[in-house]
Write the structure tokens for this entry.
Amino acid sequence: MRLLDHPIRRAGPWWPGTKPKPTTGSYYPWNGPDTLRYAQRMVMSDAELLSQWRTGDRDAGRMLFERYYETIERFFVNKVSEDNIRDLVQETFLACVKSREHLRDPDKFRSYLLTTAFNVLRGHYRKKKRRPSEVDFDNNSMRNLASGPISLLIEKREQRLLLEALRHIPTNDQALLELHYWEQLTTSEMSEILDIPHGTTKRRLQRARARLRGKLEELAESAEVLESTLSDLDMWAKQCRHAIGRAPAPES
């Protein structure tokens, strides 16, 4: 089974604490006469939706989760086995529900959600280790931390090489590059998520690129694939984002 053919991909967003609803198309929590209301919410900013959610409007919360469902799922895709993705996505949203009043800047909801996801990921691996201190994202890669291989059916050799190389570099470097390439975050936003100074983020991003290149050279099956990958790394990274984030559901 492809990761993106997993039931979680077909289920669509859900309200934290409930089971996902299988759907055949897009998920719309407001139907019938409320369609206009749904359309109006779609153009609201994160800050506006968060403000309404804080006053008890659950529909505004649903819209925020629908807006960032794929972002959070994509964050976990290349870091945990597919059996754990749904649970960790839901754990992230549940944590956000419980702590939504603590967010000081409503305009930074996406960064706040990704910070929560990063903490959930760290907690996930700490639970799997006898010594939580062994989970060192600065030095350990997902290749070292994960108990088994992560299966992704990707057609392009360059994309497979890139995803595998990301899993071979330290986890903080992997997360930094994925946030940069896949989510198009600024260095300031990445600094907030990783809780490091802005200048440090810039230096780490440069170091992460260098480490990634080294792993690409080490893991490439041929000089041709390596040259093709390195010739336009930004393009392949964007295509990876598309491939793992918006693959069509299989026919039933």
In short: Confidence is low (pLDDT under 50) at residues 1-14, 19-30, 246-252.
